Amino acid sequence: MQMVLGMNKTDKEHIEFVNKQIEKAAKTFPDLDPNDTLGFFRIHHILVILPMSKSTWYAGIQSGAFPKGACIGNNIRVWLKLDILTLANSTCKCNIKV
Question: Looking at residue 3, what DSSP letter applies?
Answer without folding.
Answer: E
